[in-house]
Amino acid sequence: MKDSGDSKDQQLMVALRVRPISVAELEEGATLIAHKVDEQMVVLMDPMEDPDDILRAHRSREKSYLFDVAFDFTATQEMVYQATTKSLIEGVISGYNATVFAYGPTGCGKTYTMLGTDQEPGIYVQTLNDLFRAIEETSNDMEYEVSMSYLEIMQLLMKGNRQRTQEPTAANQTSSRSHAVLQVTVRQRSRVKNILQEVRQGRLFMIDLAGSERASQTQNRGQRMKEGAHINRSLLALGNCINALSDKGSNKYINYRDSKLTRLLKDSLGGNSRTVMIAHISPASSAFEESRNTLTYAGRAKNIKTRVKQNLLNVSYHIAQYTSIIADLRGEIQRLKRKIDEQTGRGQARGRQDRGDIRHIQAEVQLHSGQGEKAGMGQLREQLASAFQEQMDVRRRLLELENRAMEVQIDTSRHLLTIAGWKHEKSRRALKWREEQRKECYAKDDSEKDSDTGDDQPDILEPPEVAAARESIAALVDEQKQLRKQKLALEQRCRELRARGRRLEETLPRRIGSEEQREVLSLLCRVHELEVENTEMQSHALLRDGALRHRHEAVRRLEQHRSLCDEIIQGQRQIIDDYNLAVPQRLEELYEVYLRELEEGSLEQATIMDQVA
Ligand code: ADP
Ligand code: MG
User: Fold this and answer.
1) Which terminus in the chain has less CB density within 10 A, N or C?
2) Would the pLDDT of 226 be above 60?
3) Basic and acidic residues compositional bias: what residue ranges (predicted)?
4) Which residue has the CA at smallest separation from atom 16 of ligand 1?
5) Which residue's CA lies nearest to atom 19 of ligand 1?
């Protein structure tokens, strides 16, 4: 069965690129401290290490960092693209999201990697080229719609700061202090006209992040400093996201809302996307601190798992599965029809050629004689039909299983939300507690401290619903496992049945004559066609049901919102009346209208209730 709409865990891919040392760095007397040692490993040496320093003696002078792939000055743009981004394209044109983002301090080559130069085009251009090529190659079967947008986020973030802020900073002459995002959306629809058309949408984000260095390192002042702080808040939030997401064991609350950037990256980091991060460092000794920070963050990012799920628009997950069954069945019907045509053609041709062939006549006679043959054919027909019927049963059971799996997943996320909400509340309280503590011992340098919450804070009692959520999750995870096992078994059974059907069909030519073969094949065709109709009807029912539920949900939300508004309006009215406040004429009129509508509304409702009763 096709795995449309299926989702699987994917590790974030993290690549590291060490750019060539620059002339400026050499002139400053910097030495090379970052080296690529193999395809995946980079070593960073601490230039300040003093072997006589007793406090530091237990540390090693070198620290190695492992990535999915590592590049140094010898890597070409093409090589970087091939190893990081090229493989995402196929996914994007079949409905998956993907994100590539360049990370690292200013001046370390992010823009070079993403944008590149005319002679050495970067990932943007190479990706677009390949994307359009891939679309062209499959455009016989598929219809595509591609849209693109390019935005610099800081421009949106900082209202009033109209021009793009790209004045030189001390860190780098040309580096932008904006995050730049190129977004490509591909919508795909099959040209084969099914009743239920599956529209898939895949999105590719290519992001050139603003520098990750700290404001103090760029010696920025004033407004520049504020921008720097803003960017860094974004990056700090990103860092926190990376930290929290990579913390495998716990269900730490992920505060994606920390900044616009992380909200933008939410899908890439937390959810529905294949994500590649390309971290950048300079190999120069003068950049040691920045490089170490970057390597540490990038190293942590490796533990992030993202969930990849195909985006199906309009059709929900299992409807897509029905569609896939229908497509399969249609394929079968086509195949059978072709077989019938071939059969007819061959039969006629052979009829003409073999008319005088005694062996052929003998065979025909043999086939049409005895009752035994007729019975055999009936049996064969039955076997074929029952193999197919069972196959359909298995498919239905698979669908039910998938539905249950989805419910389990939804339940699980609901419980996870309960827990996450609690963790959030807990950390809020802990933060408050720590703030109070900090006031007491402010002098202590906490720059070395990690951001994780210590255990030394007072225990906060966990509410019962959180404990219940934990228990439920454990049970649901077990069920999920069971379902997966059953699913595998059913899929296996389905394959076997299919193979059996095919084998039976193969024996057709040997056992029966062309007329009967045609008859059996046509019968099979008919069975398949009926099955298509049946499946279509079911999926239509499901679709209507889904749409209805959707509307129901929307109405419920509106109702909720309306009653909130009512409450606010009435509360404010109360204040106006209590304090005898003067209200503009227009507002007074509007309030009258509101009251009237409220009355009519409740009247209407009463009538409806009456009718229902
Ligand atoms: P960032 O975007 O990270 O601030 P840039 O991409 O602007 O950094 O790179 C800074 C400078 O280094 C640019 O002049 C760029 O051409 C050069 N550079 C960066 N990476 C490479 C590389 N791999 N090969 C050659 N030059 C590079
Ligand atoms: Mg740049």
Assistant:
1) C
2) no
3) 440-452
4) 112
5) 109
Under 8 Å CB-to-CB from 109, ≥6 apart: which residues? 17, 19, 280, 282
Q: Is 601 annotated as a binding residue?
A: no
- Tell me the angle at which helices 77-84 and 123-138 cross, rounded to the nearest 10 degrees: 50
294 known ligand binder: no
Helix/strand/coil (H/E/C) assignment for every residue in 415-457: HHHHHHHHHHHHHHHHHHHHHHHHHHCCCCCCCCCCCCCCCCC
Chain centroid to Cα 58, Å, comes to: 43
Which ligand is closest to the CA of 169, given by its number? Answer: 1
Residue nearest to atom 17 of ligand 1 (CA): 109
Any binding-site annotation on 107? yes
**Ligand 2 centre distance from Cα of residue 300 (Å):** 23
What domains can be seen in the chain, in order of their start residue?
A: 9-49+56-218+225-314 (3.40.850.10), 383-426+464-578 (no CATH)
Question: Nearest residue CA, atom 20 of ligand 1?
Answer: 109
Q: pLDDT tens, 309-344? A: 444 333 345 566 677 777 788 888 888 888 777 766
| CA of 110 relative to ligand 2 center, distance in Å | 5
Residue 42's pLDDT is 92
Mutate to test the pocket of ligand 1, among 108, 112, 117, 231 (most ligand atoms within 8 A of CB): 112
Is 356 annotated in a binding site? The answer is no
Q: Is 40 helix (H, G, I), strand (E, B) or coil?
A: coil
Residue whose C-alpha is closest to residue 223's, from 158, 174, 152? 158
Whether 98 and 204 have beta carbons less than 8 Å apart is answered as yes
Q: What is the pTM of this model?
A: 0.49
Phi–psi pair at 403, nearest 5 degrees:
-60, -45
Integer Cα distance of 198 and 327 in angstroms: 11
d(C-alpha 435, C-alpha 80), whole Å: 45
Name the closest-CA residue to atom 11, ligand 1: 107
CA of 35 to the centre of ligand 2 (A): 22
Ligand 1 pocket (Cβ < 6 Å) reads 19-20, 104, 106-112, 172, 174-175, 211, 280
Residue 277 neighbours by CB under 8 Å, 6+ apart? 12, 13, 14, 15, 100, 101, 103, 298, 301
* Contacts within 8 Å (CB) and 24+ apart, 461-465: 462/422, 463/422, 465/418
Are the C-beta atoms of residues 377 and 520 closer than 8 Å to each other? Answer: yes
Determine the residue type at 453: T
- For the chain, the residue count is 613
The reply, when asked if residue 607 is annotated as ligand binding, is no
User: How close is the Cα of 20 to the center of ligand 1, in Å?
Assistant: 9
pLDDT, tens only, 539-551: 677 667 666 666 7
> For the chain, what is the mean pLDDT?
72
Q: Which ligand is nearest to the CA of 104?
A: 1
Collapse the DSSP code of 459 into the 3-class scheme (helix H, G, I; strand E, B; otherwise coil) and give the result: coil
For residues 281 and 294, the answer to whether their CB atoms sit within 8 Å is yes
For residue 28, report the distance from its CA to the centre of ligand 1, in Å: 18
